[in-house]
Amino acid sequence: MIDGFLALYIFMLAAFTGYEIIARVPVILHTPLMSGSNFVHGIVLVGAMVALGRAQTPFGIAVGFLGVLLGAGNAAGGYVVTARMLQMFKASRPAGGGGEGR
After folding, report:
1. pTM over 0.90
2. Region for residue 25 given its phi and psi (left: phi exceeds 0; alpha: psi -120 to 50; beta: otherwise)
3. Which of 25, 61, 73, 82 is deepest in the core (most CB within 10 A)?
4. pLDDT by 10s per residue, the chain, length 102
5. What is the rounded distance in angstroms from the CA atom of residue 93 to the CA atom of residue 89?
6. pLDDT value at position 65?
7. Separation CA 46–CA 53 (nearest Å)
8. Angle (CA) 15 16 19, round 5°
9. What is the DSSP string of the chain?
């Protein structure tokens, strides 16, 4: 019973700390922060796969599967968002070809 409360306390502490840190990040740092968080999501995904592999009860298997599913979706979505954000920084090409080759 104590282990459950300790795990809940650590989770809540991590959630509040993460929220406070992310809320104070300037807009210019969101792309590097997203890349760093993709790394963390990959570690979470590996942890969820290990937990799923060691699960023995139906509840443990369900929670492990949900963790793997959500972790994979979060990591893949982070890479998609990062790629879209980096597209904004590419130089745009002229549309009509006006002045090229002269």
Report:
1. no
2. beta
3. 82
4. 667 788 888 889 988 888 887 777 776 666 666 667 777 778 888 888 998 999 899 998 999 999 899 888 888 887 887 778 778 777 776 666 555 554
5. 12
6. 93
7. 11
8. 85
9. -HHHHHHHHHHHHHHHHHHHHHHT--GGGHHHHHHHHHHHHHHHHHHHHHHHHH--SHHHHHHHHHHHHHHHHHHHHHHHHHHHHHHTTSPPPPSS-TTTT-
| Interatomic CA distance for residues 36 and 59, integer angstroms | 32
Q: What CA–CA distance (Å, rounded) separates 79 from 16?
A: 24
Check: CB of residue 33 under 8 Å from CB of residue 21: no
Residue pair 34/85 in contact (Cβ under 8 Å)? The answer is: yes
- Cα separation, 54 vs 80, in Å, equals 31
Q: How many C-beta atoms lie closer than 10 Å to residue 51's C-beta?
A: 16
